Amino acid sequence: MNPTYHDYRPRDYSKVRGLKGISDPQIEQHLKLYEGYVNNLNKLLARRGEMCRAGQIGTPEFAELTRRAGFEWNGMRLHEHYFENMTPGGGGDPPSDSPLRQAIEASFGSFDAWKADFLGVGAMRGVGWAILYLDLRDQRLLNTWITLHEDGHLAGTRPILVMDVWEHAFTVDHKPTERSKYLEAFFHNVRWDACDDRLAGIPEGRPGAAAGGGAVRPPPTV
Ligand SMILES: [Fe+2]
């Protein structure tokens, strides 16, 4: 962590409204939780910076703040990925010429096989995240479960599709035992062109970012 950075700001997700199967009150509550991660990260980093300047490195408090920063940072950034890969009018299956679709088919054999695997990860017991990653070394896609926010990320990968499966993501709309309804609703709102941009390495949220890009290497033949 850089002790000079404590100026992160919540991003504007006012356009993430009117989703199919995920209510606006659900999104409103979720955005408040997201803003909490941003605010807590700033407080934590500011305090950590004070300790650096005061020569308090090496203390138990410094160590715990440093560990905690991974939780707050990932809580911030994973939620940004999540909100940015949903949009009203999204969903359906990505078109056959979508780079993501082609990469999924190369890595999993078919879109349906990937989706079944991803949903299986999302339905696992416990709270966490289901994430589709691009392995930057081998240019292959992987589905992974993330416990909490900071545990389990795969080194050398880039998140492509992020699905929050903490109960706070759906319990305004559904009972805790009804996660499957939320998983179904999530797929009605996926913004596939955002996933294409991530696959191509186009910076997140860049105004006018073109879907598809083309910077990524062709997926390997399997
Ligand atoms: Fe969340």
Textual characterization of the structure:
By secondary structure, the chain is an alpha+beta fold. The protein has a single domain (22-222), classed as 3-Layer(bab) Sandwich (minor pseudopilin epsh fold), CATH 3.55.40.20. It has six helices and three strands. It has helices spanning 24-53, 60-84, 99-108, 111-122, 179-187, 192-200; strands spanning 128-135, 140-147, 157-164. It has a three-stranded antiparallel beta sheet with strand order 2-1-3. Helix 1 (24-53) packs antiparallel against helix 2. The longest helix is centred in the N-terminal third of the chain and has 30 residues, at 24-53. It is globular, with a radius of gyration of 18 Å. The model is unreliable at 210-222 (pLDDT under 50). The structure holds fe (ii) ion. Fe (ii) ion (FE2) binds next to helix 1.
Top keywords for this entry?
minor pseudopilin epsh fold, globular, binds fe (ii) ion, three-stranded antiparallel β-sheet, 222 residues, single chain
Helix/strand layout:
Blueprint lengths: L23 H30 L6 H25 L14 H10 L2 H12 L5 E8 L4 E8 L9 E8 L14 H9 L4 H9 L22
Antiparallel strand pairs: 1-2, 1-3
The site of fe (ii) ion has 7 residues, from helix 1.
